[in-house]
């Protein structure tokens, strides 16, 4: 029975009754700054800065402080390349140093002490113009010396072959760079056999200020002109104006959403990833690959589409940073024809696909000899990517985005499946052998069945939203209604038909129907049992896991409401010294940026979920976190949600509707709820109780409402959760007496 609740009118005006977010951002983020008591000595310890395209890692191997610079969108022959290193030349011998990465200002700074004096430095990366700014201040005996920068270019050799120790072909032996020095700086130009070039400009101005840029072009002249133009513009503007513009962007970036909880290590880790996203992505920038602007030796110098790109972009939507996701989706739109050309010619009027790996043009694998998947084999990688494009739409509910961008591309991606489905003797539609990433090639692979089912449901719902003009609707409905069920056995979800789960493995491609697609959800007892069984089977031997296995497992346990287990999985990930770096970078055989970012998405799952048509507030907070809060997390249906938890109970929830979509709320620890404040157009929102902890709110577009369990509960403002004095941010955990080696 559905019970209507009486709305209570408060004596004070609604606007004054509503709680607000009170965050002293410089102070809050300062508790998460990365602080080094000694100089970092390698990539995994380094300070890192970037503007979504250009960036640097800052460290001091052998006591020589330097900036390893790179540019995400410089690609030759579908592959990233190392660029080089800018080093500080001191008069004396370096004895010690320290550093700090200030998140609020997105600026690294520090001190180098030599046997002659001291050099203080600070550095950041501006977006307009795209330059690295470096300010050096010499003191003591270094003042009268020659503190300057030098340049160590990298050898231009294919990173994948270097990592695999393969022989170079003649076309790999690119000429050495041409370095030119002058009193005002230097330039370096690297050309490539077959065309293309990058160039570096280091410009020195008064006051120990240096501007560093990387240009690219079809020729050496084009690349050098771009690099010089950037450093010249920076010199014209000056460091003060560049600093002001840089900080203005960052100070607007952070408050888009807020999250706080009483775990210093995890909270700091989360906010360092938010900093990392702003440093590695911009709306008009390149796709964020596995390295981003912080390139390091790697066998994976490209974009990988069978988990990596999806996890990389996964935290943006809940974090209310949709604009950054355009760095991926605009490239999908611009290269739609390339995606179409990836399928056999006979299918190009109705299908599109992506290979397992590609360059930024999305055309072909980096290594055709080893990347064997193609459009008819590893078919799910583009549909999985488009799941996040769909979220991009659902989190803002812009029908033009759906109609003109998401829907046409999803139609082609699912069209690739429909070209291969076969009607079986059982009357069901089945998939031929396809590849479940890193697991097996098998008929009716759960990976592909899940993506096909999700894609068909999404296309049908979209077509019905637009109207009845879609001629493929009958076909979609028939395949969906008669699609083969997910293969299962007593151990849960199988890899595919005839292929049971055999042993634990890092990749959870066979569990995609659980997470992230949530086609199987725990609100039905039989499906909850299937999730629990499948998860227990997959986690049987976690010694075979990699970092993203733990973050995926954390998200799945959060779906079940297992907050304590979810946090255990996250801590197991952070405690993996083989892969986790002191500065929160992550590497297996090479850098893989997606894993730390997926951890941020898994942390978000503890606070807000939106599956099954409901907003679920604090669905998986661990028992020890009696206090927690979040502000302006974004959810399906274009809602901004804020909430505070005090003393182990949800104190209030605020929901703002950006699109006027139906709103259902689940707060498990509430038996009832009342409207405590509201704002926006129309009368007070109507609140209806469905069951204990579940409510429906009639919320118009542009309206907001504050709900609480009763009229007596206080409405504390959103503010940082206090941490005990002894509990501090451990990142990067480099102290003067710690070892640099691991």
Structure description:
The protein is of the alpha+beta class. It has a domain at 33-256: Distorted Sandwich (Beta-galactosidase, Chain A, domain 5). It is 28% helix and 24% strand. The chain is built from 17 helices and 36 strands. It has a 9-stranded antiparallel beta sheet with strand order 2-9-10-11-12-17-16-15-14. A hairpin with a 3-residue loop joins strand 29 and strand 30. Helix 12 runs antiparallel to helix 13 (473-481) and helix 16 packs antiparallel against helix 17 (594-607). The longest helix has 21 residues, at 446-466. It is globular, with a radius of gyration of 27 Å. The N and C termini lie far apart (61 Å). Residues 1-16, 366-373 and 735-742 have low confidence and may be disordered.
Give unreliable regions as ranges: 1-16, 366-373, 735-742
Helix content: 25-40%
Total strands: 36
Quote the CATH topology of the domain at 33-256.
Beta-galactosidase, Chain A, domain 5
Q: How many distinct helices?
A: 17
Which radius of gyration do the C-alpha atoms yield? 27 Å
Q: Largest sheet, described in full?
A: 9 strands, antiparallel
What's the end-to-end separation, in Å? 61 Å
Identify the overall geometry: globular
> Averaging pLDDT over every residue, what do you get?
93
Strand order of the largest sheet: 2-9-10-11-12-17-16-15-14
Question: Which percent band covers the strand fraction?
Answer: 15-25%
Derived structural class: alpha+beta
**CATH hierarchy, class of the domain at 33-256:** Mainly Beta
CATH superfamily of the domain at 33-256: putative glycoside hydrolase family protein from bacillus halodurans
Name of the CATH architecture of the domain at 33-256: Distorted Sandwich
